[in-house]
Amino acid sequence: MKKYIETLGGIIEKRAAVSPERARGLLTAAYSWVRFSGKLRTGSGVGPAYSRMNSAVAGTIVDSFRHPKEAVMVNIFLPCELLHALSIQPMFPEGIAVYAACTACQRFFGETAEADGVPESFCSYHKTMLGMAESGVLPAPLMIANTTLACDANQLSFRRLAELYQVPHMVIDVPHDCGEEAVHYVADQLRALGAQLEEQCRRKLNPLALKEAVECSRRTIEIYRAYLSKRGGISLPVTMTGELCSMISTHVMLGRPESEDYALRLLRAAEDAPHAAVSGKKRIFWIHTLPNWQDSLRRILESGGRCELAGSDMPADALLDMDPERPYESMARRVVCSTFNGPASRRVEEAVRRAKEVRADGVVLFCHWGCKQTLGLSQLARQRLEEEGLPTLVLDGDGCDGRNVADGQMVTRVNAFLEQLEGRSA
Amino acid sequence: MIGYNCKYTPIELLRAYDGEPVLLDGEEKDFELAESLTHANLCCHAKALIQQGTRTKELVLMDCCDSLRRTYDVLCRENHQAFLHLVDLPHEDGVCARERFKGELIRLGDAYGAYRGTAFNREAFLSACRESARPLPGGPFLAVLGARASQPLLEMIRGGMPLPVVNLTCSGSRDLEQPPEGAKEMDFDALMEWYAGALLRMSPCMRMTSVAGRRALTGHPRLKGVIYNTVKFCDFYSFDYAALKRESDLSILKIESDYMPQPAGQLATRLEAFTESLFPSAPDRREKRMDTTGFYAGIDSGSTTTNMVVISEKKEILASAIVRTGAKAQNGAAAALTQVCGQLNCRPEDFAAILATGYGRNNVPFATGTKTEITCHARGAAFLNPSVRTIVDIGGQDSKVICLDEDGGVANFIMNDKCAAGTGRFLEMMARTLELDMEQMSQRGLTWKKDLTISSMCTVFAESEVISLIADNHTDSDIIHGLNKSIAVKTASMVSRAKGAEPYMMTGGVARNQGVVQELEKRLGKKLFITDEPDLCGALGAALYALEGN
């Protein structure tokens, strides 16, 4: 299978250089297959849940490629219930870049962006998206909307894309304190975004549709929290792609029925799962995004038999109560009170709490290339987690760009870390 | 004193509470402490600030960027300061943002006043506001733009340029408007509201949502050129640089700094070449002349080889030499001179003029003048092939792309930074790993069978990738082809960034490597013009300048 994907990736890269529309057509065909095959997966367990969620994400990419004027480019932290209520597809860098990496064609887009002056040290997710846009593969969306949370890359790449595409661009400025004043400040900006979306897509935002989207978010969050509450006592074959699916289901896809269905399937899988003690595997809590394109790490973390991913911090940064009667304030609170907002201690203390809750044996803090937020807190987090008795590996890597990765070194480090954990229990 | 690092810092407010704000913009010898507390790939200014912060009693930081936010987190944890405060800076300058920022300013004032035991002094505040204006020079001037620049770097730039240099970087362009009439009588809340707005109305830095106001920085009619600084691992200003290059006709030199002492030679080369492109007829500083006898020489003192070319008054090439530079530039230069004297059967005194170029140009004792290798390469290339518009020069320690105008002058150039990826040194390191010499590297890369890709950008990562490929039993030829592709990608990317146009010429020792040449031609989609002696282009250009200047 890998060989076929690499061949396809090679063809897409060659096409992208001369005929971006054709490259887009190939990507659309490939992701349509992911959408179609994922929908067919039935049964219980986390596998079908991941396939179906993957199908939904692939669907957003396919639809946004086919009907770009019915899509809005967003960052992963922008609350998207407004889009869902208006039947607009979200396009987001993490999704697009990860799919490009898993289709073995990311390299071309990374190089294209760098040739256009994007710095090598820039976040690879955003760099890939810029390369896809600047090569003409990614079509111009209806508009662009992003929050300043959680990273500086948002301020740079979305502004550049708005200039390139000549489409309206709206930025939601997120203050760092999580008081009510900040919530109102953000809620007012979200109201303005709603008005802007109405104007751009020439449809009225139905308050009932928004309320239903927020109600769907509320239910999804409750179910997801119930799943997490069981996670500490059970063993599940969680994959890196699965954790990414969880992250997307609690962010840009939150408020859509596919996310609610996903959370329900995870909860049922958790209810049927064996007790944690049965597996005998080391339990890893993961901080930040996951490099699911990297076969070597997948072999260790998913099929190596020595460890299991017990959880990660990104899906649960803002699992807060939602009030459908106050949709804007509810969405704003999720951004303002995200553990990714404000001081590092907010995110680190939540990671400590979550790692303990899932009974992790160790923590991997993944320093995704170019993410200054995470790089900057890496030693603070390691110190704090180890104070709490949680051995921590600070692992440098890249969520989508193999050019920034020393694969052999990463494998050695992860294996050595597992040996360290096994040595502790012996 | 209270340390600060950002132009949005309300330094007038701090003065009103009897503080003495001092911009922290020093360099550090290394980042050992900062990297132990954070990560090696954090912005270099943030790493310097962490180290300086641990030595500073009072510190106020603005929430400028991800790196600065984490700097504050680290300093909080280290707990060295008696006063440490982070101000949440909005990304907008609308009414709501101003209101929020006003609240932040009042909170800072209250906290600092309580710490120092002082009250707000309105007269001191207004006087500080009035003093903040810094008029531009009356005549033509140059500007440093982009990311903040360390004080030693600014001094080096000012010392190397022929015009006054204004600091318009993100910590320097502090164009605060004057207080409104009646400010003496305004109530405190209204005064702070004006102040919050005035700070947010300054020329925006790149982290603000709207950056349209930045173009005012480069629109001044007396501005003759820009030295554009980016800081290693700060991404903001590469975006602004790319936009400025697209939109402006200004002469721009891009440099990258890292808050550590700069290699003086590399920066000096760039500044001199920039001056030469701004003022093509500027007199040579050394202005030393020998007696005219008819031999004119150029000597290119590079990191790996020293190359020399001798021409006649009719611009005929009479002799040339390529020798190893060795440990000292002057020894390599002496060896090259001995060789050409042997070829011409003449004495050093018989030369009318010898112009030195290259990194070691200032260490050639017998040179009568100097010019940078950028200008000399351009001159040599225009002489060899007047139609050439872009030179790709890959030498031992650096790679450059030089764009030429229709007259053969330097229109624009870019160079690699400290990283060795994409240079001759990179190939030498990989040759060592493969236990081959450079000639074998050049030949074996042509007979590849499997299309391998060396994906790592970093020389160190690439070396470990090569070792893995050797362990996987891949052939030398396939691995070398992968390395050649990697250099070609990096170089083609530089050509694209410099907006290089065809026809292309390649110079420097790496132009002898057929494998790299083939891959680069594939990437550029055009043939490269390469002379039989691609190493000699810079020396030839220098010889031409020696003749023309005599």
Write the layout of secondary structure elements.
The complex is a heterodimer of chains A (about 425) and B (about 550).
Chain A: H1 2-18, H2 20-40, H3 46-66, E1 71-74, H4 81-85, E2 89-91, H5 93-102, H6 106-115, H7 124-134, E3 143-147, H8 153-165, E4 169-172, H9 180-201, H10 207-231, H11 240-249, H12 257-272, H13 276-279, E5 282-287, H14 295-301, E6 307-312, H15 327-336, H16 344-357, E7 362-368, H17 372-387, E8 392-397, H18 407-425
Helix pairs in contact in A: 1-2, 1-6, 2-3, 3-11, 3-12, 5-7, 6-7, 7-8, 9-15, 10-12, 16-17
Chain B: E1 2-4, H1 11-16, E2 21-23, H2 32-37, H3 44-53, E3 58-62, H4 66-78, E4 83-87, H5 95-116, H6 122-131, E5 141-146, H7 151-160, E6 165-169, H8 188-200, E7 223-231, H9 236-247, E8 252-257, H10 264-278, E9 295-301, E10 305-311, E11 317-324, H11 329-344, E12 351-357, E13 369-370, H12 373-384, E14 390-394, E15 399-404, E16 410-415, H13 424-434, H14 438-444, H15 459-471, H16 476-497, E17 504-507, H17 514-524, E18 528-529, H18 537-549
